Amino acid sequence: MTAPATFRNYIAGAFQDAADGRTLPIEDPTTGEVYATSALSGAADVDAAMAAAAAAFPAWRDATPAVRQKALLKIADSMEARADELAATESRDTGKPLHLVRAEEVAPVIDQVRFFAGAARMLEGRSAGEYMEGFTSIVRREPVGVCAQVAPWNYPLMMAVWKFAPALAAGNAAVLKPSDTTPASTALMAEIIGEHVPAGVFNVICGDRDTGRLMVEHPTPAMASITGSVRAGISVAETAAQDLKRVHLELGGKAPAVVFEDADLAAAVEGILLGGFFNAGQDCTAATRVLVHESVHDEFVAAFAEAAAGARTGLPADDEDAFFGPLNNANQLAQVAGFIDRLPPHAKIEAGGHRVGDKGYFYAPTVVSGLKQDDEIVQNEVFGPVVTVQSFTDEEQAVAYANGVDYALASSVWTKDHARAMRMSKNLDFGCVWLNTHMVLVAEMPHGGFKKSGYGKDLSAYGFEDYTRIKHVMTAL
Fold first, then answer.
1. Which of 43, 297, 340, 453 gets the highest tally of CB atoms within 10 A of its CB?
2. Given the residues 284, 350, 381, 432, the one annotated as active site
3. Looking at the structure, do residues 280 and 305 belong to the same domain, yes or no?
4. Where are the beta strands (DSSP E) in 172-270?
5. Nearest in space to 205 (alpha carbons), one of 195, 221, 196
6. What's the predicted TM-score (pTM) here?
7. Is 80 assigned a catalytic role?
């Protein structure tokens, strides 16, 4: 019998166990069986990581942008050289189909690291000038300091990159905590990053919710960044407010996909299928709410339900046709099933609506129609392979339904009418509006929402600037 893997903390350039020796079990979501353990870090471990980051920060802050760029480019090259290992590690830990991890996650994150390597040399302030006679003003853009970062379990590798890459590129030091259920790829990234940056610039703390709380409470970090649930984001904001830390929150979503009567229905079905069920719907930008014009509602539902029924779940390594893998953990499976169990009498399950198999956390791609705007499943984030469909009568109602939730991260509009697309992109209250596509991301464009989806941006120059602060310097002439 193979001994379970062990994922350890990475502090000051060295891997180490939790100070008190505690560990967490790590389950394989395809079977529900424990396949590894990770450190369960406490206050002593957090203190050590924060001290290491604080000690490393001044030299890294003072390194030239060219030095930081070179380090990030080397990290990207090392990731590329070990891409198969990264993909296998992420697939093993999350249960995602290996072919999808390799193409849709590992390749993009390598590109994203290279983007931030370039951004490291593009920090600009407003030009110097004389705004009062006899004085010249300049603006300095500086790193904020030590960053406490908490990543989620739906995209462990990608979200780790979205956090460490802009932070390090801007000259900060980082202490990153992966989710308690998915630490594997972050531990591997620590090994890779540690080869190219000074000890203490990047640290990893494994643990649970209490570990994350200790990180945010700690007096050392100048900034706390989390990708997670609304509840977790509120908790982080409340805790960070006690000593006025900066906060960067990327939280939940309930993305509408608005399909008008003139839309290419075949393209809409295909695009929303991918946007709704990729990664088993465990994506804050997932197309979870389809709003369809009443004149094409029935046609769309029939086509979409048929397509969903053909989108199979599968095992990570041996099913090239698998559309998605299992849900991440037993709690998430129970949450998804609970939404379906509590459907109101007027709802109709058009496809799926059940667990797949009796081992692991697989759930069938599910389509639910006949819903009302105030139904629980319309208003709250399911975070699973469940897509709801509602009908609307006109553009005004479509906007009202789309905006009528607490989340405001992403949305899409499906129409051939350019003017309508422009009106919708103006009126939809979401951080991203896709037109005739859904869930397409590029490193150059910002990702982040409004309302209960949080604040701050990932990716892009805007996300990079979130990890900096502005200083005015005035000199007398």
1. 453
2. 284
3. yes
4. 173-177, 202-204, 223-227, 246-250, 255-259
5. 221
6. 0.96
7. no
